[in-house]
Amino acid sequence: MGELPIAAVDRIIRKGGGERVSENAARVLAEYLEEKGMKIAQQARVFANHAKRKTITAQDIRLVVKEL
Fold this sequence. Notes:
Radius of gyration: 15 Å
Strand content: under 5%
Largest sheet: none
Number of domains: 1
Shape: elongated
Mean pLDDT: 96
Number of strands: 0
CATH superfamily: Histone, subunit A
Structural class: mainly alpha
């Protein structure tokens, strides 16, 4: 995978209260977020297909997240 920049994930952890963040911690969180993001996107695609659309909308994403 490796789509999310480690620096961005580091900032997320710091905003969450982390004072110091190891690169490995940021990498592990990035992997988890990418996995979750893929699953959300796949389910959103199902919703878009059901509505006979090719475009995934913000509403599709919100519906998936609401179900979690």
